[in-house]
Automatic annotation (TrEMBL):
Residues 487-652 form the PRMT5 oligomerisation domain. This is Protein arginine N-methyltransferase 5. Coiled coil: none annotated. InterPro entries: Arg_MeTrfase, PRMT5, PRMT5_C, PRMT5_TIM, SAM-dependent_MTases_sf.
Length: 846
């Protein structure tokens, strides 16, 4: 039976097991322990006296191994659900005794094979007998490579002979002696030798004495599956019942919160009469009449009491359970339009909007004195209004302070604008609120604002391009105007998180190790206090660059001991206005706010930090013409590679906007085919539009950015998507009878081409808005297309070679996009250009 009921908790920590001795009557072992209230047993699978070298074989050269029971006497479901196999404790695979070493290796493989045959969920491996465990780890790693879903738990004693928190006699000592044992270091060596395998976990042996709290904290970032509590660890209370010290109780609460199963081990050390034993829950008493009461029941009752004493999970944590340690890609606010469900989730965060309302109240009171409240109207602009929660908060602030307000709600998502119109009509705000469907950076405001309100903050503060957006929007803020938020700072701290590291590693590529993830951190050990990284203040009238660089030094407390850094957790803290702030930085986090989870920057190679070592970290925020990205590395105690160099794996798209300019959203689809037909007719090729369509298999829009989106499940991209057209200028390139479709943005372009036939005529035509082509001068458009296509098959590469020959070496030497030929097309101000034709005969074939 589970330890008890705790609202919201469905984790494995509800189940408690018992460690047993070898018994060849496994059905009796299971009956006795399950009827005694335990949920599973940790039982030896093989007679501890067995040694392969001492077995007498029969005439066939084989021998029957002395296993505890066969799969016939115990049902497979019971083996799988109620038994954890315990590997023989005598094995020593690194022994100097060659016979012992060979026997140990054979026995280990035999027991694991038998456990796998029984479909056990886990097996408990004995702790290495010495500091050197290379051969043991090698054998285990070999087993792991061919193992099914079974977990291997390495038994690790929770010991570290260091300065305890309550010890004062050695408080001036800062160095540990050479013979001090830190079991974490042995575990770390073992798992490194086993390549961080995700089926290798830890079962902690909890003894009567505990290391310091910082040292214990390391284990919550490790894959701890079970905690084996010895009866010797229990104290005796005034009534003679077993109990645990305050520090042990706190540790147990941590185990319960991290889905760690408790296993009770040892013999009865407390003289408790069966009739006087405390029972915290009658539902947990499943003792069968006529069956001897389990000797370890007093300890089980106390563990159940500790579990049931825990507070129920708060509603917020219950909502977040499914997101714990689940890696998510951060939002791309300028490339993606949020869905209604996402808006709804964020709008439920009443704490956040309460803070915004407080900030607007203070700003209104500062802007308008009481004597002018009835005559002065404040212009407030909500940039990135979404579905209107900030509009509502601002109007409520105006009502609360008795100030008059005129609101502009600026939103680029056309779908959210529909909801905004409905909200304004429903609330009767038509005379107070003006809706603007536009990107804030493109809007020409009719008047300047007194207050600019936005909620563009990401988990790292600036990672959703709040600086770039607000710098573009501040042109319509008065010189004495107020920006809410007024500033924000990002923070990082080194963490141990084996779970997240293995999740990233499972993708087996570089890109995922160079990507920052939004994640609800849970199985994590925070090794040092967080430190500030980048700070941005608004308004930024001085036009300070948004590029940043910061070098940080972290010192892990000496009582922690050695540690492993799998990456860095990132947070932010924002000042909305004066003393009103919100954030997720652990020491100043706004209570009960759930709009943001921390961000995680992984390291490709985990960093082992020895006692007393300093961690030196470098972080960069880099800005390009169309993207913003982070780079990070460690230079001490050992150097790592610079992650995400040049934004090669992860970036935030900040493409420029032409949505407010004439011709910025011209229609694609059949118009593009028409344009291709026009170009084809100009060159004397196929002028029949139907012929061109028939030869066109499909038209795809592609880019590195969109390949990134494919990984997020956005593989389908509709040609007529207005939000897409609002951000990119479409371009058609026709080379002979080849049609290439993309969208130019500054000096970059979306590029993916399709072949609609073969032709020896390779004159190139580019069709698109004049401003786009003139700005990019045509060079990068063609270079981008050819660079992408040159990675294709042989036919595609041949096509690129011929195109390069016809329009010049390296794509642009012979390109002429001047006024040599321009004419109006499709009444949209779109122009047709063509490249100066350079016959193939004039070019040397490379």
């Amino acid at each position: 039976m589970p330890l008890g009921q705790r609202a919201g908790d469905k984790s494995d920590s509800r189940y408690c097991g018992a460690e047993t001795e070898f018994d060849d009557d496994m059905p009796q072992v299971l009956t006795h322990n399950l009827s005694g209230g335990f949920d599973f047993v940790v039982a030896p699978l093989l007679d501890p006296n067995y040694r392969p070298s001492m077995v007498k074989k029969n005439n066939n050269g084989t021998a029957v191994l002395p296993f505890a029971a066969s799969d016939l006497v115990v049902a497979p479901s019971q083996w799988s659900s109620h038994v954890v196999g315990k590997i023989s404790s005598w094995i020593d695979l690194d022994s100097k005794d060659e016979q012992l070493r060979k026997d140990s290796e054979i026995t280990l493989k035999q027991e694991i094979a038998w456990a796998s045959h029984l479909s056990l969920q886990a097996c408990l491996l004995p702790f290495p007998r010495g500091a050197s465990c290379g051969n043991y780890a090698r054998c285990v790693n070999q087993i792991l490579q061919g193992l099914n879903n079974m977990q291997l738990w390495l038994r690790v004693p929770l010991v570290k002979s260091d300065l305890m928190e309550d010890d004062t006699k050695h408080e001036n000592s800062c160095h540990m002696s050479e013979d001090v044992l830190d079991s974490w270091e042995l575990w770390n060596s073992f798992r490194l030798l086993c390549e961080h395998h995700n089926q290798l976990s830890v079962a902690l042996d909890v003894l009567s004495s505990l290391p310091s709290n910082n040292s214990l904290g390391r284990w919550f970032g490790e894959p701890v599956r079970a905690a084996i509590i010895h009866t010797e660890s229990f104290l005796t209370n005034a009534r003679g019942y077993p109990c645990l010290s305050k520090r042990h109780q706190k540790l147990m609460a941590g185990f319960f919160d991290h889905s760690v199963q408790i296993v009770i081990s040892g013999r009865l050390l407390h003289n408790v009469s069966p009739g006087g034993m405390q029972s915290s829950d009658t539902n947990n008493d499943v003792h069968l009449e006529g069956t001897p009461r389990h000797l370890l029941r007093p300890y089980l009752d106390y563990v159940a009491y500790l579990y049931q004493r825990m507070d129920p999970l708060p509603e917020q944590e219950r909502i977040e359970l499914g997101y714990r340690d689940f890696l998510q890609s951060p939002l791309q606010p300028l490339m993606d339009n949020l869905e209604a469900q996402t808006y709804e989730t964020f709008e439920k965060d009443t704490v956040k909007y309460s803070q915004y309302q407080r900030a607007v109240c203070k700003a209104l009171l500062d802007k308008v004195p009481d004597e002018n409240a009835s005559t002065t109207t404040i212009v407030l602009m909500v940039v990135g209004a979404g579905r209107g929660p900030l509009v509502r908060a601002s109007l409520q602030a105006a009502e609360e302070t008795g100030r008059k307000l005129k609101v502009y709600a600026v939103e680029k998502n056309p779908n959210a604008v529909v909801t905004l119109h409905s909200l304004i009509k429903l609330e009767g705000w038509e005379k107070l609120v003006t809706i603007v469907s536009c990107d804030m950076r493109c809007w020409d405001a009719p008047e300047k604002a007194d207050i600019l309100v936005s909620e563009l903050l990401g988990s790292f503060g600036d990672n959703e391009l709040s600086p770039e957006c607000l710098d573009g929007a501040q042109r319509f803020l008065k010189e004495d105007g107020i920006s809410i938020p007024s500033s924000y700072t990002s923070f990082i701290q080194p963490v141990t998180t084996s779970k997240l590291y293995n999740d990233v590693k499972s993708h087996k590529d570089l890109e995922h190790f160079e990507t920052a993830y939004v994640v609800r951190l849970h199985r994590v050990a925070k090794l040092a206090a967080s430190q500030p990284v980048f700070t941005f203040a608004h308004p930024n009238f001085s036009q300070q660059s948004n590029e940043r660089y910061k070098k940080l030094h972290f010192q892990i407390p000496s009582e922690t001991g050695s540690a492993m850094v799998h990456g860095f957790a990132g947070y932010f803290d924002a000042v909305l206005y004066k003393d009103v702030h919100l954030g997720i930085e652990p020491t100043t986090a706004t209570p009960n706010m759930f709009s943001w989870f921390p961000i995680f920057f992984p390291l490709r190679t985990p960093l082992t930090v020895a006692l007393g070592s300093l961690i030196e970290v470098h972080f960069w925020r880099c800005c390009g013409s169309t993207k913003v990205w982070y780079e990070w590395c460690v230079t001490s105690p050992s150097a790592s590679a610079i992650h995400n160099c040049g934004g090669r794996s992860y970036w935030v798209d900040c493409c420029c906007c032409d949505c407010g300019k004439e011709g910025g959203g011209w229609r694609m689809g059949s118009a593009l085919i028409s344009a291709a037909a026009v170009a084809s007719g100009e060159q004397g090729g196929r002028s029949d539009r139907r012929s061109l369509i028939a030869h066109s298999i499909t038209i795809e829009i592609g880019t590195k950015r969109m390949r990134k989106m494919d990984e997020r499940g956005r593989r389908e991209f509709e040609l007529g998507n207005r939000s897409y057209l609002g951000r990119w200028q479409p371009v058609v390139i026709v080379v002979g009878c080849y049609l290439l479709l993309g969208a130019a943005n500054g000096t970059n372009m979306c590029h993916r081409w399709i072949a609609s036939g073969q032709s020896s005529d390779t004159r190139a035509y580019v069709i698109g808005p004049p401003s786009t082509l003139l700005y990019s001068n045509g060079k990068d458009i063609l270079e981008g297309v050819f660079e992408h296509a040159s990675r294709g098959n042989g036919h595609q590469r041949e096509f690129v070679r011929r195109c390069k020959l016809s329009i010049g070496q390296r794509c642009h030497n012979a390109v002429d996009f001047s006024e040599m030929e321009r004419r109006c097309w499709a009444s949209k101000g779109t122009s047709l250009y063509h490249c100066k034709h350079v016959p193939c005969s004039q070019q040397a074939v490379p």
